[in-house]
Amino acid sequence: MGGLVVVTTVGNEGQANLVASELVSRRHAACVNIVPGLRSVYRWQGKICRDTEFMLIVKTSEKEYPLVEETIRELHNYELPEILAFKVCKGEKNFLEWIEASLDKTAPFSDEEERDVLDETNY
Q: Would you state the CATH architecture of domain 3-106?
């Protein structure tokens, strides 16, 4: 199964941490990068808007994409969330294998991993 990078934006750090933590803890994503300070200029309902947002870069698989999208929609507070997916054409072999292994729902989390995912003070 191929690797996928999903991009979304959220309006604040709390929501960024929530979405990222849920995606990883549910094993829909191997990793989520949170990029603060993103400046967005866009047209919305006939007006040009400017906002500061947080970008989430989600490393996942094509198989997990429907659950990634569902989780983002479930937790997102935007009326129309940006959810874009890009296929990974090439990548470091071991990294791509790590993504697949991280998404394996049959492998149990250790107690330490579970605490780390849920403890937002690790940031």
A: 2-Layer Sandwich (3.30)
